[in-house]
């Protein structure tokens, strides 16, 4: 899903420009990647590697400094003969699985191993604390507003409208979500003129001025009710409604 890849990539560039500490930025970036991992996305870290290295989200070591290098020299030497990027799993010689996930990755040209925040190889720094998706989205929207980045304000608003409810408890009410997050999100979103705005993708479109086909889809979503339908109905209603 290239649009999710783009959303995360642009958001990481935004985080780089915030006034937060590197520690705060690392946690936000980690949560952005946690979102990306829920979708069918490619490995995109190198698109923003300068930011990842600057904030400390990613650290590099020489391949011989890997804690399991000793006794596995031939394994690492064979990796260096391959092309581009090679993934390194917790158990070096086993394939990826839910129990054997990637803990680092090797860039064969530079012979450097890259280790991201939250990896077991950096366990002394503590585990990544996963944020509520709406807390994360509101954080990015607020920072995007400070930087007058109307594109990210729009895209994150669309993302939270369409996909956010999937992360929520079924007992969450629309009123709770409006009071906790979406009242502010709609105020920020409404402060921009999107009359001639082109969304980055169909899946991140807010159906404010829909085509006839889109209007049918919008009306169907609203008619389904539930958290998603009722939230969309509220969002598209006049602010005083």
Number of helical regions = 9
Q: What ranges have pLDDT less than 50 throughout 5 or more consecutive residues?
A: none
Order of SSEs: HHHEHEEEHHHHH
Shape: elongated
Beta-strand percent range: 5-15%
For the termini, the CA-CA separation is: 35 Å
Share in helix: 40-55%
Alpha-carbon Rg, integer? 21 Å
Computed structural class: alpha+beta
Number of strands: 4
Strand count, sense and closure of the main sheet? 4 strands, antiparallel
Average pLDDT level: 91
Strand arrangement within the widest β-sheet reads 1-4-3-2
Oligomer: single chain
Can you summarize this structure?
Helices cover 47% and strands 9% of the residues.
Summarize the topology:
Layout: H1 2-16, H2 22-36, H3 49-55, E1 58-62, H4 73-80, E2 85-89, E3 102-107, E4 112-116, H5 133-146, H6 150-162, H7 174-190, H8 212-224, H9 226-236
Antiparallel strand pairs: 1-4, 2-3, 3-4
Helix pairs in contact: 1-2, 5-6, 5-7, 6-7, 7-9, 8-9
Explain this structure to me?
This protein has 241 residues and is an alpha+beta fold. 47% of the residues lie in helices and 9% in strands. It is built from nine helices and four strands, in the order αααβαβββααααα. The chain has helices at residues 2-16, 22-36, 49-55, 73-80, 133-146, 150-162, 174-190, 212-224, 226-236, and strands at residues 58-62, 85-89, 102-107, 112-116. Strand 3 (102-107) and strand 4 form a beta hairpin. Helix 1 packs antiparallel against helix 2 (22-36), helix 5 runs parallel beside helix 7 (174-190) and helix 7 packs parallel to helix 9 (226-236). The longest helix is centred in the C-terminal third of the chain and has 17 residues, at 174-190. The two termini are 35 Å apart.
């Amino acid at each position: 899903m290239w649009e999710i890849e783009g959303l995360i990539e642009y958001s990481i560039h935004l985080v780089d420009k915030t006034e937060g500490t590197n520690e705060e930025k690392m946690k936000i970036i980690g949560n952005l990647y946690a979102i990306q991992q829920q979708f069918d996305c490619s490995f995109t870290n190198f698109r923003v590697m300068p930011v990842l290295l600057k904030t400390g989200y990613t650290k590099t070591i020489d391949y011989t400094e890997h804690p399991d290098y000793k006794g596995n020299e031939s394994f690492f030497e064979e990796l260096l003969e391959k092309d581009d990027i090679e993934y390194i799993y917790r158990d070096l010689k086993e394939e990826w699985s839910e129990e054997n996930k990637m803990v680092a990755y090797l860039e064969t040209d530079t012979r450097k191993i890259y280790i991201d925040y939250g990896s077991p190889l950096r366990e002394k720094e503590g585990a990544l604390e996963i944020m509520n998706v709406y807390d994360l989205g509101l954080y990015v929207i607020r920072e995007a507003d400070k930087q007058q980045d109307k594109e990210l304000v729009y895209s994150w608003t669309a993302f939270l409208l369409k996909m956010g409810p999937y992360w929520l408890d079924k007992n969450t009410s629309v009123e709770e979500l409006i009071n906790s997050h979406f009242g502010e999100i709609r105020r920020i979103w409404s402060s921009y003129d999107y009359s001639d705005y082109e969304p980055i993708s169909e899946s991140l479109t807010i159906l404010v001025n829909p085509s006839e086909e889109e209007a049918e889809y919008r009306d169907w979503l609203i008619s389904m009710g539930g958290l998603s339908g009722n939230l969309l109905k509220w969002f598209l209603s006049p602010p005083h409604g």
